[in-house]
Design brief:
Chain lengths: 359, 262
């Protein structure tokens, strides 16, 4: 395998195809568009299908139909488009279909949308937030595995910077433990046998007139608790002896990690921890780390969203300070001074001096 | 319009017990038990659909994508593979299913509220794309499931819960004639409207369904069947008057016929 220079959005789409994705549907929106274009160009080469859906509502419906046949299928968009998809996201979760969806966001202001969602009812989607293109290639493949393993949607939270950064990557199919057969998938073959299938998000099944809502919700709840236990992922550096711990995610964390390394080499006692899964959030890791530090800082590119989860993790054992804020280019695509080491260093120094930063 | 005295007394037992005249159950029906109202046209239409699938020997390759309305309750007894879609979204779901299952016979089952209100863009886009699926509309001119409210296909003058004095074009606008609209799109290969208000039309409905499915099996593109169905409950008419009401009130605007056959 050779390493090639590729743009993030293309590398992620290529990784998805390497992971066996054979269906994609989407509707253009910056910075998601290049992902869509790559699938449109390259899925047919491997016998896959890519559809230019007429809207995001239809894009996710198409992916739903493809998933129902047992195929690995994906869709995606940017905040607004994903807002339109919320009804489907919550119901696909209840239909227990393994959707993978790309959230190529305009910055980090969609943390709530990603981790809480705007769909109805009790539901949870796994959210993976890569720090760079190489990790995005791995997490994209992991996303398809986790989606199948848990029969639950998985989001990949990227952004403009990730989409348009070129990195050298090696994209080959990753190995994962074996998965159970998709015996739930429809192919029409059981029609008339009395055992035909019904892929159903509202708990209806054949020969039953009642949906037993409580049992249905409870079963999903138990699954989501299991995912919380099993799948929280994070990265940490310099926790030992850190006076202040900085929590950051996604592409912003790349700059934070760099600055923390730099400050440590100068003998400044800061540490770093990065949730790789935004859901399940690594509460336990942050809770443990908070026991041995004087304060916990949150550096995110928004008005303060992940800080809620950090507070829930820390539960008062250390003060939690906000160092993040709005930072964007003039077009609103979410590339701003916060994607720079000077800006990040300044924020961290404010934190060390006991000052919050206004978003 | 019926007067109050014509309304069936449902609190008293019927004067004579119901008698089963025929016990023929289609193979693709798991049970004859259903929870839809007496006089409802939807089970009749669904029965015709299942018989058509069976007659075309497609029982082992049919996948239905179901909308949300009273007919959703029939998913418990339809013995083909099914995917339950959101309200309005079945044509897109069927698109994804068909693309990954080209040899499947993929159909949607939707009501007028589901298709002509909530998901209008879905059916139009799928038709324009020439998607090789069959969309089946059960048109009763109301949201039966919510209790008989006006839809985008309710005809002028029709009483519904929110047009209690009849749909008034000035206030509520005009109905959409969806079959006529879809027939104009070059992506559609077959478009027909039929109704289940009497025995001959019911048999004819099955013939039309077979033609639509055959269109898909021949790979000709989008096929569409609109079936007018009785909803005495949602129309506030006595059950025995349902078929006549359907034929004369809805049928005079949503006119029966084959609009396109390529
Ligand atoms: C997004 C959404 N909005 C509203 C509803 C409530 N709802 C359920 S069925 C229905 C109307 C169904 O009408 P139709 O498709 O004509 O079927 P019918 O009941 O007449 O058979 C509505 C509005 C819903 N389920 N989902
Ligand atoms: S409300 Fe109308 S459509 Fe619904 S079951 Fe009753 S008669 Fe049928
Ligand atoms: Mg209706």
């Amino acid at each position: 395998m050779t390493r090639v220079l590729m743009e993030g959005s293309e590398a992620m789409a290529k990784a998805a195809i390497a992971a066996g994705c054979r269906f994609f549907s989407g509707y253009p929106m910056t910075p998601f568009t290049e992902t869509l274009e790559y699938f449109g160009k390259h899925l047919p080469d491997v016998g896959g299908v890519s559809i230019n859906a007429e809207s995001e509502l239809e894009a996710i419906g198409m992916a739903w139909g493809a998933l129902a046949t047992g195929a690995r299928a994906a869709t995606g968009s940017t905040g607004q488009g994903l807002a339109l998809m919320q009804e489907s996201l919550s119901e696909i979760t209840r239909a227990e279909l393994p959707l993978v969806y790309f959230n190529m966001a305009r910055g980090q202001g969609d943390y709530y949308q990603a981790t809480r969602g705007g769909g109805h009812g009790d539901y949870r989607n796994i959210v993976l937030a890569p720090i760079d293109v190489n990790e995005a290639v791995e997490l994209t493949q992991l996303a398809f595995y986790l989606a199948d393993l848990w029969r639950n949607p998985v989001q990949i939270y990227g952004d403009y910077l990730l989409a348009h950064t070129n990195e050298t990557v090696e994209i080959s199919t990753m190995e994962f433990p074996p998965l159970p057969p998709k015996d739930w998938a429809v192919d029409g073959s059981l029609g008339g046998t009395g055992k035909s299938r019904n892929i159903n998000p509202i708990g209806m099944s054949k020969l039953k007139h009642e949906i037993e809502p409580e049992a249905f919700w409870r079963r999903l709840h138990v699954k989501h608790k299991e995912i919380e236990q099993a799948e929280a992922r994070y990265e940490e550096e310099f926790l030992e002896g850190a006076e202040m711990l900085v929590v950051a995610f996604g592409t912003v964390a790349r700059f934070v990690r760099y600055v923390v390394r730099e400050m440590r080499s100068e003998g400044i006692a800061v540490g770093y921890i990065r949730p790789i899964t935004l859901w399940p959030f690594p509460y336990e890791a942050i809770s443990n780390a908070a026991q041995n530090t004087q304060k916990v800082a949150v550096l995110e590119q928004n008005g303060g969203q992940m800080i809620d989860d950090v507070r829930l993790a820390v539960l008062g054992s250390a003060p939690v300070v906000a160092l993040g804020g709005f930072s964007s280019d003039e077009a609103g695509f979410g590339i701003g001074p916060i994607h720079g080491t000077d800006n990040i260093r300044d924020r961290i120094e404010h934190g060390l001096a006991g000052q919050e930063v206004m978003p | 319009m019926s007067s109050g005295s014509d309304i069936l007394q449902t609190d008293a037992p019927p004067s004579q017990p119901a008698e089963k005249l025929c016990a023929f159950k289609p193979d693709l029906l798991l049970s004859e038990d259903h929870h839809l109202c007496p006089g409802c046209g939807e089970p009749i239409a669904v029965r015709m659909m299942l018989e058509a699938i069976k007659e075309l020997e497609c029982s082992r390759r049919a996948v239905g994508v179901i909308g949300i309305g009273c007919y959703t309750a029939l998913t418990g007894i339809i013995d083909t593979d099914l995917v339950q879609a959101l309200h309005g979204r079945a044509p897109s779901v069927a698109t994804g299913t068909k693309r990954m299952l080209p040899n499947g016979l993929v159909y949607t089952l939707q009501g007028d509220g589901d298709m002509v209100n909530e998901g209008l863009q879905e059916v139009i886009h799928s038709a324009a794309r020439g998607e090789n699926i069959t969309c089946i509309l059960l048109n009763n001119g109301v949201f039966g499931e919510t209790g008989g409210h006006m839809t985008a296909s309710t005809v002028v003058g029709q009483r519904t819960k929110n047009t209690i004095d009849g749909r008034d074009a000035k206030e509520h606008g005009q109905p959409i004639l969806i079959s006529e609209m879809l027939a104009q799109l070059s992506g559609t290969a077959y478009v027909a409207r039929c109704g289940v208000f009497n025995a001959s039309q019911t048999v004819h409905t099955k013939r039309i369904l077979r033609k639509a499915f055959q269109t898909q099996l021949d790979g000709k593109g989008f096929s569409f069947v609109e079936i007018l169905t009785m909803c005495p409950t949602g129309w506030f008419v006595p059950v025995p008057e349902g078929p006549d009401y359907l034929e004369n009130v809805l049928g005079s605007v949503h006119k029966l016929g084959e609009l396109k056959c390529e």
